[in-house]
Amino acid sequence: MARMCVKTRRLDVARVCLGNMGNARAAKALREVETEPEPEAQVAMLAIQLGMLEDAEKLFKCCQRYDLLNNFYQASGQWKLALETAESHDRIHLRTTYYNHAKYLESIGNKTLALTYYEKSDTHRVEVPRMLQDDTSSLEIYVNKMKDKNIYKWWAQYLESQSDMDSALRFYESAQDYLSLVRVHCYMGNIQKASEIANDTGDRAASYHLARHYEGHEDIKQAVHFYTRAQAYNNAIRLCKENGLDDQLMNLALLSNAEDMMEAACYYEEKETHMDRAVALYHKAGYVSKALELAFATQQFSALQLIAEDLNEYSDPALLARCSDFFITHSQYEKAVELLVAAKKYHQALELCVNQSLTITEELAERMTVTDSKDLSEEARKELLERIADCCMRQGNYHLATKKYTQAGNKLKAMRALLKSGDTEKIIFFANVCRQKELFIMAANYLQSLDWRKNPEILKTIIGFYTKGRAPDLLAGFYEACAQVEIDDYQNYEKALDALTEAFKCVSKAKDPSAGQQEVRLADLQHRITLIKKFVHARMLYVEDPGEAVQLCEALLEEPELDPAVRIGDAYGFLVEHHCQQGNFQMAYRKLEELQRLLPSQNVRYYVSPASLESLQKEMGVLMDRGDNRPIAKEDDEVEEDLNVS
């Protein structure tokens, strides 16, 4: 019935049958195989227990459980099939299969073949010496043949156990087991050779063993040396402390960990010698507070400077303040400022900068005014920002001053700082960003100081800023300045007329509380506009009716307060040019003399063309004054005043 269950794969019925048969071993095996996910594997185990080996083999192959098939072949002594299965389908268990086969071969006395499979399973370094330990000649041949360091070491240990020290040393050397070499040489009393090996190889374990040997024989200097080579610094430090090797102790402590540094520092402090070393070790070990206290107590000022470099805002504020006082005393103000800032004593730091004329860098200014600082209220922070900005202004660092004034919310002072910097691009940008009337006016006033006559963009910006700043009176003044420039530099009365017309419009729009002054200014502008219109009209009329144009110009010269609206020189120049063209050189010369009498300090060549002057010289037979002084408009001071209206 149980065999039928293998065919029908009824494991439930098989369990009942096995129970009735009293086959406890088969029932146990069947219960253990229940963990396998494949039903065929479970049925195969039942088949094995019932001696149906062929069926079991087919079932394992059917469910592709080659690992179980491999175990089945090994258990049934079918080693060839087991090896083939492992090599083809179960490579994860290949080395295990080789090892098991080697064990089997060893058990039947086939050591030669067993050796091969031990090598294939990569267990030959342990298993082969064990297998051949009773056949020393074969084992020695195998050792020399393999040239394996692990096997050399095993063989050397064996030889050492047999008291064959020379041979053991030779194989230890082949195995590059420097610890064992040094150990054996020490045992044999070859200390010099052991030292050479440890020094040449730098092997830490060998150096440590040799150091222990020297320590045992009270050769402290060599013991410290080899403990150092072994990087066993704590042992080297212990020996230095016990034997008063203070010079070596410092170097060893610096190579070791913080705990050893601390112990060495305590040692120096207790001995009250080499206190500078104690300070340095406390500092290096991370005990900054202790290092500072000891440095202050022993007046180690050079050490203080090194320690202070590692102090930051996370250090003890009391220590920071103490260090800053020390640096102030020794006139190292920049370092003192850094420590005061780290201690969050910003006002003291700023005061020190002011008193000692220290340059406030952007980095220092930022550290003194951290946005999210909990040590300063917003009001105190703004006050500090303004003080920093004031200091930057005194130092000439106008851009940084602008930045700090802006952060403090004082845009007016920020603009003043920016104006001092002379950075036109930033001034225009700042005014446009802030969009405050006062700033527009300040920027426009500054731009007037530039050569706006040759830069149309600046000219437009000035007009735009005065317009945005709602300062029509100042804009009017600027238009007047433009008009005067057109007259003085270019004799372009048409453009001057346009500018004065715009100035008149601006003054008309201005809300002047003193209406009387506004009326006077409007009347003056109107008078100047009227005079210029007459002169422009006369020059335009000259093409059609020269006589009428000359009469208008003559009448214009009779007008009171003609200059500066129309320069006297330009009017006389017009008449001189006319008379020269008409061939009336006597009249032209008379007008020229009148001009020279009215403007004795100015060069008439500025008003009269060279061609007309040459004609006069030729016709009248007189030598004209060739002075090269150019006329300077008397209105220049007024223009300058307009340009600097605040």
UniProtKB/TrEMBL annotation:
Domain IF140/IFT172/WDR19 TPR: 1-465
Compartmental location: Cell projection, Cilium
Source organism per UniProt: Champsocephalus esox (pike icefish)
Keyword Repeat in record: yes
Gene3D superfamilies in UniProt: 1.25.40.470
PANTHER family: IFT140/172-RELATED, INTRAFLAGELLAR TRANSPORT PROTEIN 140 HOMOLOG
Protein's name according to its UniProt entry: Uncharacterized protein
Start and end residues of each IF140 C-terminal TPR domain: 473-596
Keyword Cell membrane: no
